[in-house]
Amino acid sequence: IEVINKDILKCFNDFKFSRPIKVFGNLPYNVSTKILTSFIKTENFYESYKKFVFVFQKEVADRIVANENSKNYGRISVLTAWKTERTKILDISPECFYPKPKVWSSLISLSPKPKIEILKKAKNLEHITNTFFHNRRKMIKKPMKLLFKNYEKISKEINLDLNLRPQNISVNKFLEICKIYE
After folding, report:
1. What phi, psi does 114 have (nearest 5°)?
2. What are the two backbone dihedrals, phi and then psi, of residue 106, each rounded to the nearest 5 degrees?
3. Are the beta carbons of 44 and 33 closer than 8 angstroms?
4. Using CA atoms, how far apart are residues 41 and 13, in angstroms rounded to an integer?
5. Residue by residue, what is the 3-state secondary structure of 76-145?
6. Which residue from 110, 92, 112, 97 is spatially nearest to 53, judged by alpha carbons?
7. 12 has pLDDT over 70
8. Which helix (H) or strand (E) holds 35?
9. How many beta carbons lie within 10 A of that of residue 40, not counting itself?
10. Does the structure show a pLDDT above 90 at 136?
11. What confidence tens digit (pLDDT) does each residue in 35-94 have?
12. Would you call 164 exposed, middle or buried from its count of C-beta atoms within 10 A (0-12, 13-18, 19+)?
């Protein structure tokens, strides 16, 4: 076995496998979302990965698996739902670890969706969701205005109510906005 000493956050597109693999682990909580989003943004996502089973801090896991119209729904929910089916398997008490963390954890499973909306760059979806969720309690008129000069026309074309808040917009609607942005 060859040991490769690389920073995981800098080498995702370097991984090449002869068939899709399953990835599992207890991710370091301080960089867990960066690791997850890096996996999702890889160029060879479907060729390389069959399933992910990860342990996250419970609050982060709740955001990853959240659906629209919930308080936990946000940027990470949209990005992961774009390419994966997300399932929370179980919550894990701090008592199950040594040394004991101060927080609960959750085990989640993510499997690539059979069909996704193709975007030119995943970074565009990150930018869109960042813009929308920057002020998550505000209505979406302002982020639309920041992204598009003709935001009112676009909103009408895609049947988007500018009085909604970001957590009320479906993943598909975010993808539609992203495609127009691109």
Report:
1. -65, -30
2. -140, 145
3. no
4. 9
5. HHHHHHHHEEEEEEEEECHHHCCCCCCCCEEEEEEEECCCCCCCCCHHHHHHHHHHHHCCCCCCCHHHHH
6. 110
7. no
8. helix 32-40
9. 21
10. no
11. 999 889 887 788 888 999 999 999 999 999 999 999 999 999 999 999 999 999 999 999
12. middle
pLDDT surpasses 60 at 4: no
* Global pTM value: 0.88
CA distance 21 to 47: 9
Helix (H) or strand (E) holding 178: helix 171-181
CA distance 56 to 29: 6
Q: What is the mean pLDDT of residues 120-142?
A: 93
For residue 82, count CB atoms less than 10 angstroms from its CB and return exposed for 0-12, middle for 13-18, buried for 19 or more. Answer: buried
Token pair 């991984």 in the structure block, residue: 15
CA distance 142 to 85: 30
Q: Which two tokens stand for residue 107?
A: 């085990």
Residue type at 67 in one-letter notation: N
Q: What is the mean pLDDT of residues 1-29?
A: 70
What is the helix (H) or strand (E) element at residue 51, kind and residue range? strand 49-57
Report DSSP letters for 144-170, one per residue: HHHH-TTHHHHHHHTT--TTS-GGGS-
